[in-house]
Model the fold of this input.
Amino acid sequence: MARKMQIDGELENSNKEESQYDFDLFVIGAGSGGVRAARFSAQYGAKVGICELPFHPISSEVLGGVGGTCVIRGCVPKKILVYGASFGPELEDARNFGWELNNKIDFNWKKLLHKKTEEIIRLNGIYKRLLSNAGVKLYEGEGKVVGPNEVELTQLDGTKICYSAKHVLIATGSRSERPDIPGQELAITSDEALSLDELPKRAVVLGGGYIAVEFASIWRGMGATVDLCFRKELPLTYFDNEMRAAVARNLEGRGINLHPSTNLIELVKTEEGIRVLTDNDQEIVADIVLFATGRIPTTKRLNLQAVGVELDEIGAIKVDEYSRTNIPSIWAIGDVTNRMNLTPVALMEGTCFAKTVFGGQLSKPDYSNVPTAVFCVPPLSVVGLTEEEAIEQAKGDVLIFTSTFNPMRNTISGRQEKTIMKLVVDAETDKVIGASMCGPDAAEIMQGIAIALKCGATKAMFDSTVGIHPSAAEEFVTMRTLTRRVSKPKTKLQE
Ligand code: NDP
Done:
């Protein structure tokens, strides 16, 4: 409460002052979070400037572009490639639906790449227009913080210019991190993977997170031999264990070679390709090795330590629940703060920032029940708690309802791939506290389930909802039989 009043007071006073600054707000980084915060702040009447490096549609060396990682080299181009990769297996599935595919079907990687680049250029233009329509002044160049209210912009011709702002917002996102493995310079990251000149015939992917399983699915769907190496027993640490096992089964079912509990120890360039050595004494030769081992906040070139902004041990900017740093005029949102690194979360943080600072409404991002999807093929989507988290956090027992079934189209296509759904319920309150699905359209279905969880829906409410028949989604309202009831293991004292 004391903090709330303090923030109220400070913002009220600061808004009453006659502005001695060039801008009310200067944003460094025009990705999802930065653009949202800039536009919404301008709509509240603030004078806003934003800076971003220009975007190069092909080069992965220039990491700029209005729209940021999501639009330029993340979610959007990745999803286009996932769509591209899904058609091959779907055409195979179409045979039993009567489609005769007698002639050889060719896949033209360069055409897809071209269409993807066109779409990114279009979206980049839309984002720029969103800014100008909102009255935000866009500067092309690299920004760094040189004082609590000062940003220095290095323009494209190398000249430097300083702007003052009552508030500075850092929204510079994150970038791929490369593990220190001998020969690591032979590997690529997701930045390059989205714009490869040639489609690889043989790919090794290191990592078991979102990017690793998504690219493994993309390249496999396009016909490549894919070896996925990850250091845990299952991919997707932090997801529900049963779902992780389902994803692993599906990846394997689609022909991806899984190498669990595996690290890479060396990459060597040979005439046949890149020779990859693992700590399980395996040797794999590949055209491409993708490192998908996480991302780190982009703070190195921002001069933050010099102005006293506190960073954590991996270089993420430390912020309070309103996204404010220890320097009262400097704020940060999105991946650069390493809270929950998802585009829609950066959007939420940007919205809350604008409301709090310029909209006269204190507003904190709410990280509960944030749904997410991993766009492997078929996708995994989740919201709320995993079974493991629920058992850990619930006061009493946890009820688990699962449904594993053959999707209707597979009964005709003959594809051997089950869909799995799960609801996690608090036995005491009957509230659904977690939901997951691994199967076609999981992300599309989970968005609606997330609304139900956000509203605090009980299992009884799920059960009383009429299904849409025939659909996979209806399983979420017809899981009547309890799969298991799990009691929290007793502590020594309770025994
Ligand atoms: P993740 O953090 O999801 O996964 C990193 C993976 O790399 C983990 O499997 C991790 O293993 C492994 N790893 C880390 N260091 C090493 C190492 N030195 N050697 C071997 N393996 C290692 O990162 P991603 O790169 O996949 O994604 C980055 C971010 O982008 C994520 O935060 C995600 O939120 C976001 N993203 C979201 C997407 C979506 O919403 N669909 C899509 C793509 C990215 P372990 O689990 O053992 O730690």
Summary: Residues 179, 206-212, 214, 230-232, 237, 263, 292-295, 341-342, 372-375 surround NDP (CB under 6 Å). The two ends are 40 Å apart (CA to CA).
